Each structure stands twice: as structure tokens, then as C-alpha cells.
TrEMBL record:
<comment type="function">
    <text>May be involved in cell wall biosynthesis.</text>
</comment>
<dbReference type="GO" id="GO:0009969">
    <property type="term" value="P:xyloglucan biosynthetic process"/>
</dbReference>
<feature type="region of interest" description="Disordered">
    <location>
        <begin position="1"/>
        <end position="27"/>
    </location>
</feature>
<keyword id="KW-0961">Cell wall biogenesis/degradation</keyword>
<dbReference type="InterPro" id="IPR004938">
    <property type="entry name" value="XG_FTase"/>
</dbReference>
<dbReference type="Pfam" id="PF03254">
    <property type="entry name" value="XG_FTase"/>
</dbReference>
<keyword id="KW-0325">Glycoprotein</keyword>
<comment type="similarity">
    <text>Belongs to the glycosyltransferase 37 family.</text>
</comment>
<keyword id="KW-0808">Transferase</keyword>
<dbReference type="GO" id="GO:0032580">
    <property type="term" value="C:Golgi cisterna membrane"/>
</dbReference>
<keyword id="KW-0328">Glycosyltransferase</keyword>
<feature type="compositionally biased region" description="Low complexity">
    <location>
        <begin position="59"/>
        <end position="70"/>
    </location>
</feature>
<keyword id="KW-0333">Golgi apparatus</keyword>
<protein>
    <recommendedName>
        <fullName>Fucosyltransferase</fullName>
        <ecNumber>2.4.1.-</ecNumber>
    </recommendedName>
</protein>
<dbReference type="GO" id="GO:0042546">
    <property type="term" value="P:cell wall biogenesis"/>
</dbReference>
<feature type="region of interest" description="Disordered">
    <location>
        <begin position="59"/>
        <end position="101"/>
    </location>
</feature>
<dbReference type="GO" id="GO:0008107">
    <property type="term" value="F:galactoside 2-alpha-L-fucosyltransferase activity"/>
</dbReference>
Length: 575
């Protein structure tokens, strides 16, 4: 179906007809009496009121096309006959953002009202493209966020307190009783990993009373607006520590290595500690460092004024397993599976440039459909899956879970009318490759659906390979994360942090396309429904602490279970 043509307004009448009407009006003009004009006006007014009563709220106009022409399943190839023109019924369950002004732009107090709206268009508008959150916000978390914002403003970059803290760091001294303490985040791996680790680091900052500063490399510049009012979360240039080449598991400044080498002990006083500590919270042999998440270690870590942290993992679940933080976290997140859902929507707001891509694409192709279904496909180099096998698995999932309507007989285009007749479903495909779009679009181009529904297929981009160090690539990736998060249903590849972020924003439990076993090329099970909207911690710590034995916390903590896609991973959930 040609979606653009189906939505196009009627072409204006040609100039010749206008001239004829004007000429006819001129002939009648002198013969019409004033009473006849008045009576005609009143009759017309009554007819208009009868015809248009109760329809005064117009649909927002569709903006101009995106800067790059997307792949759209509605486009008609020249080699095939076009679909007949059809009337597209406006969405009944999802309207364009301009029609929902009553929706709470502050998300129940999650967002601060202290920003000028013009400073970041997405901050107060991006949530209007989603259904309301299914997770109520804890008043205690709101209070905690406002308190943190004041603390960050008092101690953040540009303040006297920050300059004093940096001077002490340069002098090699750890402040004995510093008013301001800091955790400095350094990036690792792709955009999805980075967003998950920033959220985890921020949660740790809330719990440990630290200001979070973010080292922003060139490939990450211009992606996100500032999340805290009246200050900045960006680590200023010239920071004396944190050479990326030195931040690794073997760094002598790492907490684990300093303990192992006797540089520090759990009873070392603050004044005798080094000027900073490095936390390497990166999976090593599919495990995080155990020491970091034990009470004794947290008490020692709190004595450091400066902490440098590098991670590739969503380590928030491990904080829930640290005894000293359990009660505080329960007050902040009564519904534990909403941790990233709330923190992600609080922290991450695309800049106007990226938001422009999201808004134009959404309003041009997704705003007026009845349902949006997102498919996110990621192929990992350590376990490559052939295209044919992955496509077969995706279609099995679609069929078994009834994510899309069944196809009818191509030779019988006129299907029986049902309650779904004329409804439009949009499929959004997020993948580095175009093959999945081509195949799924072909299915619904060549055959009608049994229900009479229209299925339009879209893919914003296909980059062919992931470019961690490309700013333009990351802008597109962020835009597609947001577009995917506006879908009503999501099916995603196992292990994908890109997918975790998208469904976490949406608050939607996804269908996860499982990886084949290591000795197989095809997964026996196509997909399973996630028990939670929380991301998975791929590499949990053993958490035996001083007991020196491995503890399966999924067996002893009622709010933690193993992930559907990573058998040894952990995720938070609510029973």
C-alpha cells in the first residue's frame, strides 16, 4: 500500500474551474437581495453546526519529511502494481502528541520544573509519544532527586567547592571530611551499554552521597541534554586523573588491587587513603568484582572523596543485593522492576538535533496508526547467526505470539470484513541490516491479511556495522532507541543492551529472541516473554563476600531472578 498517497489531501481544483465559478458569482452578484443572503447564511450556519458538532479537535498536521528518506513498507515499487487507494482511519488508541496536552509533562514529579522548556525540547515532550507509565512514582524517590539536584548544584563544576576538591586531588590528598564527594563515570563499549551504566552509576551516587560527573568523549558529544538544573554533569577538561589507557582491570589504583596489594585495609582512616580510588565494574570472565558490593567494602569506599568508575554492565541489581542499601532502595523503588524505567526517563533527554530526527520520523510515519510493533535484531560476532536462521526465528516468534495478523490468499484480495478491517499496524525494524525489512515488507506487500488490517513496515536506517566511535552513528542509534520505545509491542534480540534501553523506557515487557545453544545454529525456542521491564545484569558478582562461597541470590532474594536470555544473569522483577 502506498501510505503516503493514502494519506495525501485531495489535489486542489484546477485554475479553469475556479475561473468559471468566479464568473458565475459575478453574474449573480447584482441580483441577490439582502434578505436572501441573511436567510441563506442562517441555514448554512445551522447545517455546519449539525455536521461538525463535537469534532473541533483536529489531528496535528504531519510535518515535513525527515532529513533522510526512511525505508517505508508503504512505498510501492515500480515493478509491481500499486495497491488500490484506501482510507486510513486515524488511530483510536494513540494520538499525536499535540492532542494530549493534559498528560503530565513532569511525569508525576520525576522531572524538575526548573528548566526552561526551550533549553531541551525532548525533556517535557518525549513522554507524550508514549502511553502513560504503568509504574507509579515513589514520593520518596521524587524527594531524593530534588535533594540530589541541590547537592549537584552546590558541588558541581564551576563552583568553589569543586575547584577545592580538584586541588586536593592534584596534591595527592584525600580529604578527611570533605563536604562534596564525587564519582566520575568513564565510557565503555556501545551506546546501550553506556546508558545502562550511567543509570547504574547515578543510582550508586544517590545511595552513597556523591556527585556524578560524566566523561563525554567526542563520539558522545551532542547526544544528551543536561539532566540537572542550574549545573552540568559533564566532567570539565583538564581533569587530572582518569587516563582511559590506564583504566583497566590491572590498574594499581583499582580498589580490588589496592586491597590485594595491602595499599589499603578496611580499617584505614580517611586521611591515610590515596587521593582517589578506581572501580572497574566491567565483566571479567562473565563476573563483576565481588568486593565492591559487600558492606565492609562500601564503608571503606565511602571514605574516598574521589572515585573513578568504568563499567560496561547494568550493575543496579547488584546494588539491591548490598545489605546496607536494601531498605533505602525499597523506599525509592517499591516496584523494583521500574528502576531503569524511572532513572532512564529522568536522566536521558536527546538534544534538539537528535529529537528532531525522532519527532519528524514519528509524526510522518507512526503517529496515526492503530498499533506499533517494534522488532530489534542484533547479531553478535562471538555467536553469529545466519540471516536465514534469524529471519526464520523472527517469523516463528511473530506467528506463535500473534504479533502480526495472519496472511491471506494473495489471489483473494477482498477479504471478509471484520472488526479490524481498515486498521493500520506499523512495524518498526531496528537493525544494522536491511534484509529483515525487505522480507517482512514483501510478505505484507504481496498478500492481504485475513483480518483486513493494513501492515506498513518501516526501517529508519541500516548502517551494516556498528561504529562505536562515530558521533553520527550514535545519533541515529539514539533516535532509533527512542522510536523503538514508542512501540506498543517489542520483540528483541537476546543480550542486546540497545533493546534493554528501549523497552525499559517504554515500560513494556518484550518478547526476547533467544540465542541458539553454542553447539547449534538454530534456537529450539523462537522467543519468550520477559517477566520484567528491567534490563539484565549479564555478569553478576558471586556475592559470597567474606563467606568465601558462591551464593545464588536468585534463590534467596524474592525480587531477583535469572534472565530469560542470559541464564546466569540477574534481573529485578515484581512477582
Amino acid at each position: 500500500m502506498d501510505m503516503k498517497r493514502a494519506r495525501s489531501p485531495r489535489a486542489p481544483a484546477d485554475g479553469g474551474d475556479d475561473d468559471k465559478r468566479r464568473a458565475a458569482s459575478a453574474k449573480w452578484g447584482g441580483a441577490v437581495r439582502p434578505k436572501m443572503v441573511l436567510v441563506g447564511f442562517l441555514i448554512t450556519l445551522a447545517l455546519l453546526a449539525f455536521t461538525f458538532g463535537g469534532r473541533s479537535a483536529p489531528l496535528p498536521s504531519t510535518p515535513s519529511s525527515p532529513t533522510s528518506v526512511p525505508k517505508a513498507g508503504g512505498a510501492t515499487p515500480k515493478s509491481k502494481p500499486p495497491f488500490p487507494r484506501q482510507t486510513v482511519i486515524p488511530s483510536k488508541n494513540v494520538t499525536a502528541p499535540a492532542t494530549t496536552p493534559s498528560q503530565d509533562k513532569l511525569l508525576g514529579g520525576l522531572l524538575s520544573a526548573a528548566f526552561e522548556e526551550s533549553s531541551c525540547q525532548s525533556r517535557y515532550k518525549s513522554s507524550l509519544y508514549r502511553k502513560p507509565s504503568p509504574f507509579p512514582l515513589s514520593p520518596y524517590l521524587v524527594k531524593k532527586l530534588r535533594k540530589y539536584e541541590a547537592y549537584h548544584k552546590k558541588c558541581g563544576p564551576g563552583t568553589h567547592r569543586y575547584r577545592t576538591a580538584v586541588e586536593q586531588l592534584q596534591a595527592g590528598r584525600n580529604a578527611d571530611s570533605s563536604e562534596c564527594k564525587y564519582v566520575v563515570w568513564f565510557p565503555c563499549n556501545g551506546l546501550g551499554n553506556r546508558m545502562l551504566t550511567i543509570a547504574s552509576t547515578f543510582l550508586y551516587a544517590l545511595l552513597s552521597g556523591r556527585v556524578m560527573l560524566v566523561n563525554v568523549p567526542r563520539e558522545q558529544e551532542g547526544l544528551f541534554c543536561e539532566p540537572f538544573p542550574g549545573t552540568s554533569w559533564v566532567l570539565p577538561g583538564g581533569f587530572p586523573e582518569g587516563n582511559p589507557m590506564k583504566l583497566n582491570v590491572g590498574a594499581p589504583e583499582s580498589y580490588v588491587n589496592m586491597l590485594k596489594n595491602g595499599v589499603i585495609r578496611h580499617d584505614t582512616p580517611a586521611a591515610s587513603l590515596p587521593a582517589h580510588v578506581y572501580l572497574h565494574v566491567e565483566q571479567t570472565r562473565l563476573r563483576l568484582s565481588d568486593n565492591i558490593f559487600c558492606d565492609d567494602d562500601q564503608r571503606l569506599l565511602r571514605k574516598f572523596s574521589w572515585m573513578i568508575l568504568k563499567s560496561d554492565s547494568y550493575f543496579a541489581p547488584a546494588l539491591f543485593l548490598t545489605p546496607m542499601y536494601e531498605k533505602e532502595l525499597a523506599r525509592m523503588f517499591p516496584q523494583r522492576e521500574a528502576v531503569f524505567h524511572h532513572l532512564g526517563r529522568y536522566l536521558f533527554h536527546p538534544t534538539d538535533r537528535v529529537w528532531g530526527i525522532v519527532r519528524r520520523y514519528y509524526e510522518a510515519y507512526l503517529a496515526r496508526v492503530d498499533e506499533k510493533i517494534g522488532f530489534q535484531i542484533r547479531i553478535f560476532p562471538e555467536k553469529p547467526v545466519k540471516f536465514e536462521n534469524m529471519y526464520d526465528q523472527l517469523t516463528r516468534c511473530i506467528r506463535e505470539q500473534r504479533l502480526l495478523p495472519e496472511l491471506g490468499d494473495p489471489a483473494s484480495p477482498a477479504m471478509n470484513a471484520t472488526g479490524h478491517d481498515g486498521k493500520v499496524k506499523a512495524v518498526l525494524i531496528a537493525s544494522l541490516y536491511s534484509g529483515y525489512y525487505d522480507k517482512i515488507r514483501g510478505l505484507y506487500y504481496e498478500s492481504p491479511t485475513k483480518t483486513g488490517e493494513i501492515v506498513a513496515v518501516y526501517q529508519p536506517s541500516h548502517e551494516e556495522k556498528q561504529e562505536y566511535a562515530s558521533n553520527e552513528h550514535n545519533q541515529k542509534a539514539l533516535a532509533e532507541i527512542y522510536l523503538l520505545s514508542y512501540c506498543d509491542k517489542i520483540a528483541m534480540s537476546a543480550w542486546s543492551t540497545f533493546g534493554y534501553v528501549a523497552y525499559g523506557f517504554a515500560g513494556v515487557k518484550p518478547w526476547i529472541l533467544l540465542r541458539p545453544d553454542w553447539n547449534k545454529e538454530v534456537s529450539d525456542v523462537a522467543c519468550v516473554r520477559s517477566t520484567s521491564v528491567e534490563p539484565c545484569l549479564h555478569s553478576p558478582p558471586i556475592l559470597g563476600c567474606r563467606a568465601k562461597k558462591e551464593v545464588d541470590v536468585a534463590r534467596v532474594k524474592p525480587y531477583v531472578r535469572h534472565c530469560e536470555d542470559v541464564g546466569f544473569g540477574l534481573k529485578l522483577f515484581d512477582s
